[in-house]
């Protein structure tokens, strides 16, 4: 877990400034503060690492790579029930194949965090099935 150290100093505002700030957020380099009566809500955001974030285009490239793998191996698509344990190991790969189209929809909707979670799930299954090494999977994610 990353820790952030910060100090916050707020000056006394005029009544007009206070009214404007109560209506919205105050932006700082480390996140945003929303003023609500006498309390503050602080939202911190981890600074992005330059050059180490997967772009949407790169994620699509990885999705297509895995789709080609599944098709070449004759792995069908299945939406496996979320409340059942896998009955057969191959069903996990079929479920992963079925996740790929949904991931493309998430990217179009700008839901990258969910896309990254699903990508991690698929990569975990590919590793556990002995299809790729961890080094292979890391290299898939690199620019």
Structural commentary:
The chain is built from 5 helices and 3 strands, in the order αβββαααα. It has helices at residues 15-22, 56-72, 89-108, 112-128, 134-141, and strands spanning 25-28, 31-36, 39-44. The radius of gyration is 22 Å and the shape is globular. Mean pLDDT is 79; it is low at 3-9 and 35-39. Strands 1-2-3 form a 3-stranded antiparallel sheet, with no helix packed on it. The chain is mainly α and 143 residues long. α2 packs antiparallel against α3 (89-108) and α3 (89-108) runs antiparallel to α4.
Overview features:
globular; three-stranded antiparallel beta sheet; disordered N terminus; 143 residues; 11% strand; mainly alpha
- Figure out the total of helices: 5
- Count of beta strands: 3
User: How far do the termini sit from each other?
Assistant: 25 Å
What percent of the residues sit in helical stretches (DSSP H or I)? 40-55%
Per the principal axes of the C-alpha atoms, what is the gross shape?
globular
Order of helices and strands: HEEEHHHH
Rg measurement, Å: 22 Å
Overall mean pLDDT: 79
Low-confidence stretches: 3-9, 35-39
């Amino acid at each position: 877990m990353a820790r952030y150290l910060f100090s916050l100093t707020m000056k006394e505002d005029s009544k007009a400034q206070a009214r404007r700030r109560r209506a919205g957020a105050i932006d700082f380099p480390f996140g945003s503060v929303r003023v609500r009566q006498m309390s503050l809500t602080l939202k911190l955001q981890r600074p992005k690492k330059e050059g180490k974030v997967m772009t949407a285009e790169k994620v699509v490239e990885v999705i297509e790579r895995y789709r080609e793998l599944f098709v070449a191996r004759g792995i069908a698509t299945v939406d496996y029930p979320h409340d059942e344990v896998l009955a057969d190991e191959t069903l996990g790969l079929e479920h992963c194949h079925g996740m790929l189209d949904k991931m493309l929809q998430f990217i179009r909707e700008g839901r990258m965090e969910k896309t990254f979670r699903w990508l991690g799930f698929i990569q975990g299954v590919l590793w556990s099935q002995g299809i790729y090494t961890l080094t292979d999977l890391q290299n898939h994610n690199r620019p």
